[in-house]
Amino acid sequence: VLDPICNAYKSIAQQSKFLPGQDVVVFGTGPLGLFSVQMARIMGAVNIVMVGLEEDVAVRFPIAKELGATAVVNGSTEDVVTRCQEICGKDNLGLVIECSGANIALKQSIEMLRPNGEVVRVGMGFKPLDFSINDITAWNKSIIGHMAYDSTSWRNAIRLLASGAIKVKPMITHRIGLSQWREGFDAMVDKTAIKVIMTYDFDE
């Protein structure tokens, strides 16, 4: 659990130039995205928008709101750029945390940012980009690559977790025996689960 917390901490608190009072958009509804929502809340974001897809509506969007998201945007049915700018205002959206790794999410992230805004790319994408990034030059926007974390991230993430500022329990959607491993994997695939805890339940 500490790994995604540390990544969320480093991407916002150490790598970005985020200032309290700004707005944050987070792409990706897995643990990285949900911990990023919490870090944005801790850092003093006003609007925190979680962007996901139709399969996130039932389970992950409600948990995102419980953990601090002030709005959710369904990328399957809504114009993501327009909707995020409506929620945040074009002048306030200075930071996007992109945790999905999808090229379309990176494209939308760049488009929605205000001038001088930043995208921290936490998610790993494996396909070549198929869109222009001239918007970065034209409006002084930045893409910041993210990989792993350091001792500062680790130490401070542990302190935030111990203090209760970072919450994990709402993200543990399943507690099952190891003999039910297939059920756990199926739940992850269909996004009815976020974190699955498996315990050893075989006879010795």
TrEMBL record:
Keywords: Metal-binding, Oxidoreductase, Zinc. GO terms for molecular function: metal ion binding; oxidoreductase activity. Residues 31-162 form the Alcohol dehydrogenase-like C-terminal domain. The keyword Kinase does not apply. InterPro entries: ADH-like_C (IPR013149), NAD(P)-bd_dom_sf (IPR036291). Its cofactor is Zn(2+). Pfam families: ADH_zinc_N. The keyword Transmembrane helix does not apply. It comes from the Bacteria. Gene3D superfamilies: Medium-chain alcohol dehydrogenases, catalytic domain, NAD(P)-binding Rossmann-like Domain. Belongs to the zinc-containing alcohol dehydrogenase family. This is Alcohol dehydrogenase. It comes from Klebsiella variicola.
